[in-house]
Amino acid sequence: MSTIASPRDPPRRTPTNSNRPSFETSRSALASPVLTQGPTQPPGPPQQQQRKTSNRAALREYYNLRASAPRIEIPDSEVPATEIDAPDFNVDEYVAKVVEKSSLEELLRLYTRVVGEVRALDAEKKALVYDNYSKLITATETIRKMRANMDPLNPMASTLDPAIAQIYSQASSIRDALRETVPSPDSEEGKKRDAATRQQRTRELAAQVLATPERLRALVSEGKISQARKEWVMPRKLLESWKEKGLGGSDVEECIEEGDEALRPVDNKSSSSSPRISRDERPSRDERRSRDSPQLDFLAHLLQGLFLFNSSPKMAGNGAWGAWQVESSTFTKAVVAAMQKLYPEEIADKSWDNVGLLVGNSENDAKTTNKVLVTNDLTYQVAVDAIEQDVSVIVSYHPFIFGGLKSITNKDPQQATLLRLAKAGIAVYCPHTAVDAAPEGLNTWLADIVSGPHQSQRSVAIPCSSAPSSHSGAGYGAIGRFEGDVSLSEIILRLAEKLGGLKHVMVASPVGADVKTTKISSFGVCAGSGYDVLKKAEVDLLVTGETSHHSALRAIQQGQTLVQVFHSNSERGYLQEVLRLKLEAAMKENVPEVEVVVSKYDKDPFTILDVNDLK
User: Fold this and answer.
1) At 429, is the secondary structure helix, strand, or coil?
2) What percent of the chain has pLDDT over 90?
3) From the annotation, which residues make up the binding site?
4) 73 pLDDT above the threshold of 50
5) Order of strands, sheet of 595-598, starting from the edge strand that comes earlier in the sequence
6) Contact indicator for 539, 488 with CB cutoff of 8 Å
7) Phi, psi of 476 (to 5 degrees)
8) Around Cβ 73, how many Cβ atoms within 10 Å?
9) By three-state DSSP, how is residue 501 classified?
10) Sign of the C-alpha dihedral, residues 326, 305, 365, 409?
């Protein structure tokens, strides 16, 4: 290994008490043997002063520096930056100025100082070179050791390269071969293959179910009555479902009869009053399968994907299957599509809201009626009402699931409601703030009530940036500005009438204001708990469902009048008068027999009580 020449000339032994600078040490921390001008710090203790002087002497000796003329040693001094170090320094001008203004003694002192600074800088440079030269030697030695440790591994590593290349080559060839032989799932050929696979599995399922009576008779003959009864439960449910839907014809009915007959006691078989063809006279199941193969194919085609995933794993056939293949019922999909067309989920405030299909159902467990129930809040009583009215889907304005569920039991009313609906096969869709933000939505309806017969210029309190082009202008809250002044009492009376004949409303007015004489030129409305949406609106009147004590104080301190009509009272009227009719009209395009109803148990939980009635 080559070596780097030492910067020393001639080489000398390094004094043990020498402090050499490095790249990590600033020059200001070094003692420089330079005569400086200006005030100085008082010298330290004699021992410290002597040690620093000794260090500088050792440094001069180490670098073979000739001792300079006697001068004052200033402890902890550094080479200061002067005008000589400036980028635009002009030598000729500086020399001319110094010669003109300085005496001979001053010139000699200046010369001595400059020479000392040059030597000090040179000493620092050499010390830096040596110190970092030592680091370079250490790094070189470390690299040498690393290479020495790696050299024994080189033969092993070199043998791995061909093996890895071979593995990669084989993997690439297998991948290419699979791509050629197996079509992509998204391609037409792939879709046909998947459809054929599903149909084959469904055909096998139908064949297994229709062959169940034969297995039952074999188990009964072996005395395994209990096992036979267990194996008959699921096939019989499937057969009954097929029978209700008119699938399979007489083959399904005969299969049910044969299965039931196989499990009847022998003494009951002879007492059956209905004449039946004896088993010997009937064609065997295999014969019927062969004879009615087209019918079996038709049955399998109808059943494809319908009952396969509700059966036990034993009856599911081969191939991957699971919950991902279960879809919502056709009617539920139609309701969701209609709601999303009227109130797109994109305009909902999903930063906190939970909108969309919150409870689903499948084609197999959904109600067969085409009925939708609309409600403001989904309580247990509303769920029971939906079951009694035999509805398939509930459209609940307020989401009844907000936080994550760690369990689903009957101990919690929300979870008990969820269990009841799931058991009944009723789906739940919740639009909430999508209804609020729609251009012809809830807040527009509420603003129309406030405005009444008076013209008002409208805008939204907070625009919705994610609105699709079909709902441009969507936003949260509505702002209105009258062309003239409108009586506050007139607005309150109109609100009470249009929101269900309210007898009481809550009003917060600025101190000294009289509701009967107050005039309104502008207003802001937001249904529900809408104060936060309106708090920056510069209007005379705020109308919302409910707000907090401190929000009301803030409003009246800003000179605004605040009217609140209770939370759900500000929303329920729109659901009954507008949303229900819009949804029914949109649904009739695809489901003419649809019916949209409201719940009789949906109402605001609060009642204004006159305490005099208690006396």
Assistant:
1) strand
2) 39
3) 398, 436, 567, 571
4) no
5) 356-359, 427-430, 393-396, 371-375, 595-598
6) no
7) -100, 130
8) 15
9) coil
10) negative
Q: Are 346 and 430 in contact (CB under 8 A)?
A: no
Task: Point out the annotated binding site for a divalent metal cation.
Answer: 398, 436, 567, 571
**Amino acid, res. 414:** Q
Q: Which of 325, 102, 81, 89 is nearest to 197 (CA)?
A: 325
H, E, C per residue of 383-409: HHHHHHCCCCEEEECCCCCCCCCCCCC
Cβ-based burial of 183 (10 A; exposed 0-12, middle 13-18, buried ≥19)? middle
Position with higher pLDDT, 510 vs 314: 510
Check if the beta carbon of residue 359 is closer than 8 Å to that of residue 426. yes
The pLDDT value recorded for residue 109 is: 86
How would you label 42-53 residue by residue, b for 16+ Cβ within 10 Å and e otherwise?
eeeeeeeeeebe
| pTM (two decimals) | 0.52
User: Amino acid identity, residue 363?
Assistant: E
Mean pLDDT, rounded, of the chain: 79
Nearest 5°: the CA angle 349, 355, 356 is: 140
Segment 272-285, tens digit of pLDDT: 444 444 444 444 54
What average pLDDT does this structure show over 320-336? 83
The answer to whether residues 56 and 124 touch, using CB atoms and an 8 Å cutoff, is no
Torsion of CA 393, 397, 401, 402, to 10 degrees: 150
Helix/strand/coil percentages in the chain, nearest 5:
50, 10, 40
Alpha helices in 31-103 (DSSP H): 46-62, 91-101
**Span 364-393, pLDDT tens digits:** 777 788 999 999 999 999 999 999 999 999
Tokens of 615: 């006396």
- pLDDT at site 156: 66
Residues forming beta bridges with residue 480, ordered by sequence position: 458, 523
Torsion of CA 385, 391, 392, 396, to 10 degrees: -50
Look at 126-130, 273-277, 293-297, 337-341 and tell me which has the smallest mean pLDDT.
273-277
For residue 591, give both structure tokens.
């489901």
pLDDT surpassing 90 at residue 173: no
Beta pairing class for 519-526 and 456-463: unpaired
Degrees to nearest 5, angle at CA 299 with 206 and 282: 70
Residue 569: φ, ψ to 5°: -65, -25
Question: Rounded to the nearest 5 degrees, what angle is found at the Cα of 230, between the Cα atoms of 224 and 234?
Answer: 145
Omega cis (within 30) before 235: no
332 and 361 in contact (C-beta within 8 Å)? yes
Q: Which two tokens stand for residue 201?
A: 């599995």
8-14-18 Cα angle (round to 5): 115
- CA 374, CA 401: separation in Å to the nearest integer? 17
